[in-house]
Amino acid sequence: MVLPEKLEVHDFDEAAGNLLRLLLFLESYENQRAKSFFLGGWCGDGVGASAILRATAKLLKSERGDRDTREHFGKIIHVDCSLWKNRRAMQRAIAEELNLGHLMPMFDKQDEDDDFRGMDVRSRVEIPSIGSEINACLRNERYLMIFHYGGVEDIDLAECGIPNPEFGTYALGKLLWSGYGRFQLSQRNKKLKSSSAYFKTIELYPEVNAHLSQLLRRSLHEEAAEVIGYTDMDDVNPTIVLDCFLYSLFLTEQLHGKSISVDYGWDTHACNYWICDGILQGDRAFEVGNALQGVIQMLCYPSDRTKRLADYLDEHKEQYERWVSISSNQLGAQDISTIHVNTSSYFLTFGEDCQLQLPSDMFQLASTLRVLKLCKCSFDFASPPFRCCHNLKFLWLDHCTNTGEDQGGGPCFPNLLVLDIRFTDFVLLAEMIELMTNLREVNTKGVSWRTISHAWKKLRNLHKLRVTESSDVITVDTCSSIDMMNLELLDLSGNIHMESLPTMSSAGNLKMLVLDGCSSLEHVALEGALPLLESFSFDGYSPSEKWAHPIQLPKKEPRPKSSNALIQKAKVRRISLEGCARLHSIFLRAFPNLEELDLSSTAVKTLDLGAMDVARLKKLFLLGCEQLRSLCWDGRNPSLEVLHVDTRGKTRSMIYCGEQRSSIFEALMAFTDGRLVWSVIKGLYWAWYDSKVHLHISSTIHSQVNITKSIDEIVPSKEGLVPTRLFLPYNDIVLCKDIVTCSSLVWDHQHLYPLDVHIEIGEGSHHLESMNVNEDFKNFIENKVESLHVHDNISIYFQRHQDLGLV
Fold it and tell me: InterPro entries, per this entry (predicted)?
């Protein structure tokens, strides 16, 4: 095992210069053998690594840096991918740093093509041709690539185009990198491919007379400044951002060595803690907090690294002693001391099956307490021990029990912003709610709906409402109308007895609706009632394990992985989200009884029927879906009977079904971008044999206009009109005999009629060449298509039937 190189520095400002001198020394000492250098931060714990990489890049690119050193390393490439997206985004960042602007349209086109293929954003890899250009730009150059890597998979930079140092002397570059992002203390092993002969680790240590605590604090301050750069909020003070991180550090470290863990709910409440504790203040507090929660990685578990960092910062610890977390399974009332007067956040968790009874006076001095969580505690609900905490802004009661006779009626907290009640029968009386006018977020889990349903009309300032896993039956009679003008998130997950949705027409600002695990719902029909709705989640398995703070769909990781978590099968037979024009994020899964799904006039971009587990789905409507890029379907799962798609805009196709002859499968699709066939063509090919498929790749639909043999030979159904076959799907197409004057267009009248499997390519269509190189589409043309109408498009490049596989 190769020991890491130690880099000693006196203060942060000289770290970058010392690091460059060490690289020069190692190059001369080892005869240029080492090529890849991993920066492990202070004492190898990761702190400061990202900030020092950035400072090094800045030094090399500035005039104050040593000119000889700059010329020695040659081209400086600084790439920050610590907020990981995918490998292609990494390659794009490299190309941008190399000023290869002419390659950007290639990235855009490939991403757009992958949208039509239905490829997940996280799975997108490098583009080989761009890799070749990057390689050509660097292979004969000296360069130093300074790289922040935030991914979790092992990657090979050679696939991006970076010359591999193991492939010969032409690779003159060096790599200085780290896998540690801002405020990241988790172990980060080597993730970039390189043999041990070319790889070295560098760790930073203070010189003899330097103070490590000061170096750490300065490094953390610099990392806080980096975090601000990712929020586009330059007016935020880095000291405030650092306090947000230290809040999680010191609360997490208080669990070190404890057998009982504390659920801080960072994913849900980190932003709420920062605001309610007073770290973030002002009119923009929630805006800033939301942005910071997206870029600060919270500490979930204590470790040796968190302990060392907290110990190093011990001399500053006094200002953080106001954050207190106590957990034990052996506490008694006599062990609970009165809360200190300066305490601002207090978490108390008891670990045994029995409850810890709280002294009635334990909070009598806590006049500055703002954040309070009590888990598995017992007290008098009518007169709780925290009744004197008038500045309380955050209250979380989890599995608490009442020692008194009354379930509610206790004091109210007019300054409360967030209320979280889980498996605790803490009754909210109407008169209490009326005084809590500042409430922005209310979360309940395992609480009786009847004890809280009366309250919601009073909360006009509420932005988030979660009423999950209610302990009683929810019906329309007990559901009060959702009448909150500012409500943005409504989560009704896990209410297995709820048979109908509450009326939500007055929740005009709602952006996200979650119905995961609501298995008794048979019909979900929003149909334009929520014009600002952007996200909708209905998971038939069960609710997500964690709530998230952003108003976005839950991530896949905390969702149930299989049907093993299923409590009861979802009954829903019909879902209609028609008319929710801003709805773009949809998660639907595990509906064994679903027969009809209507997503018409939404902004849905991708739909994967195979991943949805909807075996009985018969009808799918996607009319007016202008943003639709991919519809992944294999033709068998599910076995659709009706598929109607129109991506051309708000004008919806008029579909005539009254006198059509029966068919097992009917697909009517109208679109202009030929790439849409990539994802759906396999399903159309493998659909049942007795099917009717009409693909109209055109901005208008008139497959049989102006084409006839002889007007006199056709017996008109009405004077002046050309008859159409009974199964023609569009009843708004009228053919007038008077406009047919060109004798060259007089053909056999049988050619008028689209046959069962028909393709029209016409005006407004584009990316047609993409269809012709798709093997599934070629097979569809050769084996399925019965009629073809091509017209009104000067970009159509084929002239023979063979070009489309027709014979």
Answer: LRR_dom_sf, Plant_NBS-LRR
* Residues 49, 37: Cα–Cα separation, whole Å: 12
Which pair of structure tokens corresponds to residue 393? Answer: 């802004």
Cis, bond preceding 502 (omega within 30 deg of 0): no
Q: What share of the chain is helix, strand, coil (3-state, %, to 5)?
A: 30, 20, 50
Identify the CA nearest to 416 among candidates 400, 428, 404.
428
- Tell me how far CA of residue 418 lies from CA of 245, 268, 421, 444, in angstroms: 21, 11, 10, 11
Nearest to 492 by CA among 479, 507, 508, 505: 479
Domain count, the chain: 3
Q: How remote is the C-alpha of 120 from its chain's centroid?
A: 12
Pull the structure tokens for residue 253: 């470290």
**Cα dihedral across residues 539, 543, 545, 547: positive or negative:** positive
- Whether residue 799 is predicted with pLDDT greater than 70 in this model: the reply is no
CB neighbours of residue 46 within 10 Å: 24
Gap between the Cα atoms of 138 and 142, Å rounded = 7
Residue 681 domain-assigned (yes or no): no
CA–CA dist 530, 504 (Å, integer): 8
Reported confidence tier of residue 724, pLDDT bands at 50, 70, 90: very low
CB 693 within 8 A of CB 645: no
Q: What is the pLDDT of residues 268-284, one digit of tens each?
A: 999 999 999 999 999 99
Share of the chain above pLDDT 90, in %: 48
Q: What is the CA radius of gyration of the chain?
A: 32
pLDDT, tens digit, 9 for 90 and up, residues 455-483: 666 788 899 999 999 877 765 555 556 66
Select from 318, 348, 365 the last residue of a domain.
Answer: 318
First to last CA, the chain: 67
CB atoms within 10 A of CB 712: 7
Are both 305 and 338 inside the same structural domain? no
Find the DSSP H helices in 658-731.
Answer: 677-685
Residues 6+ apart with CB under 8 A from 752: 704, 707, 708, 722, 724, 735
Contact between residue 771 and residue 677 where contact means Cβ atoms under 8 Å apart: yes
Cα dihedral 58/63/65/71 (nearest 10)? 100
Count of CB atoms situated within 10 Å of the CB of 51: 24
Q: How far is it, in rounded angstroms, from Cα 154 to Cα 194?
A: 10
Give me the CATH number covering residue 189. 3.40.50
Which residue in this structure is represented by tokens 């029966």? Answer: 662
Q: What is the pLDDT of residue 154?
A: 86
CA-CA distance, 518 to 142, in Å (whole number)?
Answer: 61
Can you give the residue range of the structural domain that contains 92?
A: 5-210
Phi-psi sector, 311: left (phi>0), alpha (psi -120 to 50), beta: alpha
Q: Quick one: which H or E segment has residue 776?
A: helix 775-783
Length of the chain: 807
* Alpha-carbon span 567 to 69, nearest angstrom: 65
Residue with tokens 């309380």: 392
CA-closest candidate to residue 597, choices 569, 617, 580, 616: 617
User: Does 359 lie in the same domain as 295?
Assistant: no
Query: Which tokens is 231 given?
Result: 């929020």
Burial degree of 299 (CB within 10 A; 0-12, 13-18, 19+): buried
- pTM of the predicted structure, to 2 decimals: 0.88
Are residues 223 and 50 in contact, defined by beta-carbon separation less than 8 angstroms? yes
Distance (Å, whole) CA 718 – CA 711: 13
Our measurement of the distance from residue 13's CA atom to the centroid of its chain's CA atoms, rounded to an integer in Å, reads 37
Three-state DSSP state, 479: coil
d(CA 63, CA 800): 64
Tokens found for residue 155: 């990657």
Domain co-membership, 52 together with 167: yes
Decide if 724 is inside a domain. Answer: no
Same domain, 268 and 414: no
Supply φ then ψ for residue 92, to 5 degrees.
-65, -40
At which residue do the structure tokens 């029990």 appear? 401
